[in-house]
Amino acid sequence: MFRGGAQDLATEGLAAGGGGRAVALVRPARFPQFDKLIDSPLGTAVDRLAGADLVVDLGARIGSREWFRGLFTCLSLCTAAGLMVPDFRPIRLPAEPQMGAAQYEQARTLAIAPLALGADTGRRLAPTAQVETLGDTPERPRVELTATLGQGDGFVRVLERAGVARNEAAQVATLVERAVPLDDLRAGTRMDLVLGRRESKRDARPLENLGFRARFDLKLAVERVDGDLRLQRIPIRVDNTPLRIQGRVGSSLYRSARAAGLPAGAIETFIKAVSQKLSMRSIGSDARFDAIVEHARAETGEVKVGELLYAGITEGKKKVQMLKWAAGGRQQWYEASGVGESKGVMQRPVLGHLTSTFGMRMHPILGYSRMHQGVDFGAPMGAPIVAATDGVIAFAGRHGGHGNYVRISHSGGIATGYAHMSRIIARVGERVRQGQLIGYVGSTGLSTGPHLHYEMYRDGRPINPTSLKFTTVQQLSGRELANFRAKLSNLLAVRVAGPAAASETPEKNAEAADRAKPRKG
Questions:
Q1: Quick one: pLDDT at residue 30?
Q2: Which domain holds residue 152?
Q3: According to the 3-state scheme, what is the secondary structure of 98-163?
Q4: Is the dihedral angle over the CA atoms 66, 72, 78, 80 positive or is it negative?
Q5: Which of 211, 418, 453, 459 has its CA 20 to 30 A from that of 199?
Q6: Residues 283-295: what's their mean pLDDT?
């Protein structure tokens, strides 16, 4: 409210006591026209507006005039804020028009191209009057070039990159496919091409001749005869006589064998084969090694060294002879007497987590403590179960609390059992390999949920399946033993290679590096 002077303002402030809302306008003494403004209707409206409470507590006096005024104020402010929200829709601008030929050439001349792309950008000087334009440039009648098949590259694509037309490249691929599968061509295969004369520069040159080595013992040539492409097979004679290398062990078997010309991979296989019968530490420096590897020599001079076939160690009266032989679909090392060994561990029969171990435990269904003669693997219903190692199915069917149960007999008196299956795949008397499917996880028998109960027996007594390491002994007999001994005799009849033959192996550079290394001891 308005008062007449400063004294009235002070009096009104004291009367309010600080607890009320008092608004006073001091009337300046020097401006008498201010009195007329205060007494006018505008001053009266300003006085009322100043006394109004726009910030109202909407939780109090609900339904009163002040409450509706505060609600109106709140809604007005929210509406004003909503109206001022910016427009987040994407701004659509007209697309730039595509450059014309002249504009593209101008932009291209101002660019910088790398040397790998020919570096044909940049401005050039215009020709002078001394430059004469030729009507047509002469072409070479034949173009001879070389193409190389890269890793993961396609045969047709290589020919197209060399300049062969697409239809001729596909025709050549069809001819080559009849002799050798295109997938068997090794990366790095070099192809010699001859392209002939063409009628127009816009056309691809016709293929006149193509030659490359498809295999170690075969070369292919594609020639144009009377306008048609024809394939010619050129066999390459290959001598497959194995390479035999002998030497003294000395301070290091590995270094001595490398110095004699044996490839590094063959030496590693040699050590693994010999270590089945004797400890490498027990081999003295005076012992002699004897190794025979696959060796192929083409008539064109190329040499290819393959896998190790025979490994032998002789030290005094002690002699170890190991020969690689395939029996029952598997290759392993056998002694000269025909006895072979393979060592390892059982494969886990199912992909799952171990939920119960071997030993005494409280049975979850029977409610009392008893011996748990195996281990449990938690796995989802229907998960595949495989054989832990090679063997013969001794039982397959319902087996009391085991539910659907399979038992496999292995060599050496070892047997394994697989219980609670939902479905059995194996049949009694069937011979299974390690990792072969025999059934699926289930919850049959005394089981609280889907899992595999896995057991292992030695001579009929249960043992802990997680602690077994096995050794399988195989003895060749009959005709197979005769064939084994015949192969051993043929290999031992191979003459020892001299230093020249050894130096022709593909790893002669690595051998030279090994010879340069200082020896210890």
A1: 52
A2: 143-235
A3: CCCHHHHHHHHHCCCCCHHHCCCCCCCCCCCCCCCCCCCCCCCCCEEEEEECCCCCCHHHHHHHCC
A4: negative
A5: 211
A6: 91
